[in-house]
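Structure tokens please, single chain.
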Amino acid sequence: MRKRFAGILPWLGLLASLAAETAGGEPVAIVRTLDDLLALEEDRIDLGVAALVAARTADPGVSLDENLRRLEGLALELRGPFAEAGTARERFELLASFLRKDERFRLVPAGGHLAAILAEGRGDLLGLGVLCCVLGQRLGLPVVLCATPDGWLNALDADGERLWLDLRPRGGVYDRTSLPNGFRDRRPIALSRREALGLALMQAALTLPRKDERREELLDRAAFFAPAAHALWQRRAMETDGVENRETARRHAHKALAVARQNRWASVAVCDAALTGDAALLQETWGSAAGAPSSGGMTPLHFARTQAVAEVLLHRGADANARDGEGLTPLLSAALRGDAEVVRLLVERGADPRARTVDWRTAVHLAAGSGNAALMEYLLALGLPVDGRTLDGYEPLHFAAAEGHLETLEALLDRKARVDAESESGETPLHAAARAGWVPVVRRLLEAGARVDARTWRGRPIGQTPLIQAAGHARAEVVRALLSKGARPEQAADGGLTALHAAAQSGSAETMRLLLQAGAGLEAATTERLTPLHIAALNGAEECVRLLLERKAEANALAASGDTPLLLAARHGHADVIRLLLAAGGRPDLRARNGWTPLHLAAEGGFVESVRLLASPGAVDVQAEEGVTPLLLATHGNRIETVQALLEAGARADLKLKRGWTALHLAAKSGYGTIVARLLARGIRPDPRTDEQLTPLYLAAQQGDERSVRELLEKGADPKARVQDGWVPLHAAASGGHVAVAKLLLDRGAEANAQAESGSTPLYLASQDGRSKIVELLLANGARPDLATREGWTPLHIAADGGHAETIRLLLAAGADPTIRASGKTPLELAAEGPARELLKKAGTGSPPVP
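Here you go.
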């Protein structure tokens, strides 16, 4: 493992160079699809490209080194076109087009692919971050990426803006509480270049199980690169895991201390010591920088977990009102942790209890969220307002409700906190508690008179009720409580989204059952005419689909887009849902607007099980716009097993697209040798022609696909067949420099001196680009070196014009005449100064060419 990690480290150095000073901000976008990326503002696109490409191209089945090699190759191929693209959007569209065409980087659904890596521990999460950063660095995209355990990718650009890629298997209704822990109620700390690397390492470590040896190693590295961020991790770990984790925190504090001493980061060492709550360790780490701020402006006093530690720091002159980058003072930091004794001491030593953060959170807000009712009572007794509002309009009651702390909630209600206080978006405490699933808090708010059908007036969509939000987060018991107090299941948010739609989106059959029992409309439709069955089918929510069909939901309902539930399920390969819909009368012949059937969609995605369910005799050969069939789509995507399934179901391989292309043409052009072999095994002709007279053999030779060429020749494909401009397959192989393919063609009877309509021969084309290996092969097989084009140019002329010395040497050795004139010039007159010209000079004076 250590050897593997050491191999990663050189790449990690790239991370540090990708970002300047960065400051955390609110999420700016949620991205799930290419369309979402296209909708981003101009300056956000580069960031999304790097993160999405890394997520979609990382293959859990191969090594990190292989993933790096693939991504390096992609970056090299794109570097030139990227330099010519004028805007970020042009670069993105270029990349999207490239990925759609290139099988090596096929666009698999991001959610299912990366979520599987995260959930099952396959692949290397740190490696995934490195992949993204390598691509970003190679293409000049400033991006640092961190993976989180719950399926989010957090990308930071050079200005500190954040782009969240939602890679959970099922999307759900988006809101702030669904963001990763630590980013929900506060902005992340400021990050320097070094700390960005440390945080990436730390995030990768935290995705691993505690017993995984990589976790410790990554945390050690994180302590080296970003000790302040490491200290923040310790604080979070201790708050999450309680006292039993303090020994682990202490051990890491000692490690960080050693690194800090070595690098003279005394203030960081003191922060680590303060965090452990151990006064003795604090004395051990004491230095002249005790009051100096660490990264983000936090001082050791911000980290003090016990009264004893705070006493030591205050005695040494620590500033009780120092502020970090968020405006947190030591008192606010202690209130956030719920450390009542530290708060009392700080107030006694002059800390301002009315201090607030840059977003106007007060100590009462933070104490309410910490769950420490005694601390909150103490703060209220000091005269702090019970209904103070943050810049977003949230009051302390919102914080208590969102975190599920009944004790602080009761204390606030006793102090006449407004039970229906609305934030700037119209969110009430009941919304916050319902969304988070805190049943006792929900019941208490309802008892206190909270409006059960309160609606938001901002967010997506506007007009969500607590019931809609609870259903969207699969909070069945909350839904039950809300319904018992009169919540109306038919009430819809803007766009027509009802609680039943939200339940379908979350995939909770239990929630859906409660709503249906309460009278929710089975066929309620959004403004896009999407029913709950559409949404459940789209998300692959099998039990929800089963329940809706048992209640006789319309299996063939048409959305405004023309989609049926079956089309949506097929598009995403939800085989179990497809099975249910077909059994309930779902029609596989209903088409999308482009004429595609469910089988087309399943075939394009390579969903083999879905294809087998849908591939009935009447469906396999249905042609959509431009003649597209399921087999053509599967072939185009190199979906080998899907192609096999369609062929076994009786699909015709000879059906053509609008311009005469067959599946065999597509496979040959793309270099998909396995599919070429399977198509030929079905007995189809090896040499059908397109409208441009292209044959599969010509396309395979052009691609340089040795296997496809061999398969086609063995099945009788004609190596002498000409395309529209008179080229034969050997022309294509010679032009591309494909030596092995050219040899195969020559061995099967291809003419070395075949001339196209322009007069060019394979030797002429190979000489044009200086492909000396091909030139040598052709000459050995009887190619004539002086055959000229219509304009009189010989292979020697074109080689001289390009300055290809080795090709010139081979041609002269084969007897090429250096005195022939074309366009009034000899090869010598065409050659620039250099080795090629010297060879021709010697040839012109009768000297033999150098062997």
